[in-house]
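User: Fold this one for me? It's Endoglucanase.
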Amino acid sequence: MALPKSTNRRSRVLAAAAALHLLLLAPAPAAAFNYADALAKSIIFFEGQRSGKLPPGNRMTWRGDSGLRDGAQHNVDLTGGYYDAGDNIKFGLPMAFTTTMLAWSVADFGKFMGAELPHARAAVRWGADYLLKAATSTPDTLYVQVGDPNQDHRCWERPEDMDTPRSVYAVTKDTPGSDVAAETAAALAASAVAFRRADPAYSSRLLHAAMRAFELADRHRGSYSDGSLGGAVCPFYCSYSGYQDELLWAAAWLHRASNNASFMSYVRANGLQLGAGDDDFSFSWDDKRAGTKVLLAKGFLRRNHNLPGLELYKAHSDSYICSLVPGTASFQPSQYTPGGLLYKEGGSNMQYATAATFLLVAYARYLRSAGAGVVCGGREVAPAELVALARRQVDYVLGKNPAGTSYMVGFGPRYPRRLHHRGASMPAVREHPGRIGCDEGFRYLHSGEPDANLLVGAVVGGPDARDGFVDDRDGYGQTEPATYINAPLVGALAYFAGTAKY
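Assistant: Here's what I get for Endoglucanase.
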């Protein structure tokens, strides 16, 4: 007997969901990819995003010096740092998050990086050096952005040619920006952890600056996108989640970096007010709550000397992790594409997938070291299952997906060749020394030709909810790379490079 169409549709949906559940939870096969090569490329990418005077060994050889007078109009040196994505602006909030995640990758996964560890540390230092200057050059001031984004987005110029205004934006006690100041504090503190053994003196400088930035953030509260900077940071990097999550995130990092009990006291006293009691299911440059809880759960799980008062963070970390495991969450289950990629948002979705992948691997290691697990929907989920799920996300990025394409430039036989990225799309200065003007550059944006330069290691925004991807430079939601997409992936790739069996 034929079933009604609605029943057939429901059956197909249920069957597809069951198939995806089996796909995501099946035992992981032997290594399908050269994770060490992917790790190396993911780090090289950051050398293509550098601003300032490039060092002699910069491996993205088609890049040149840029932004050499950043901050000069305010008599402050703001050269260096990273361009966030395909434009020529130095946005402080995503740059700080990028640096935090690179530093966390080195701190937790550095031992798996092998010969790439010095390069990973160099990537952290390039961001941390800039943030150090931004946080300490002027008393009670944090410089949070260089470049007028509205003017920049009216041009398509190489960083080496840009002549749009290099306006400087700052937060102070009178114009607060607790979100960006606290994220800067977190980045400096995490970097202090990453350099604790490799360069103790530098680590100490970073920690001192982190405390200074945190004091500015906590004493003078407010969101940087709600005040006078709103027109410069919105809609590009508005702080949609508010500043509370960054304050708690920064305090957690400062405790890990300093082991100063006052920061743990701050967490205990202010946690609920700052969002510790919220179940949240996303982690990104804007919303730090899930990352904070995983970081604090590490303290609770530490064998033989659990930090009291952190049970809440373990419970909420479990809820977040369970939301990622198909078929186990009692509410707010995560969405996956038919091919198995975690899907959160329509534009630049890959940033959410790589950030969640990092937390899966990090939390799995914290659980394993404590001999613990997670109970999801009444079922025990072992750390190995979380690692397997994370690996499937990594493998999807590297080419195990319905399109059969790698979403990392330069990795594998097929990858995006038309990035929404000024420098990659236009002839390099050494090939075309003459300046290419603001309007003239748009012919490269709208061209269907492959990129003139290979932005090795760049991971793009990625496919849509149905695994569809169009390699079109105008489609920035899918083809624009960003530092905060790559940064969490560095840690995950390091783990798989160091542990995979080939």
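One thing worth pointing out: Residues 1-29 have pLDDT under 50 and may be disordered.
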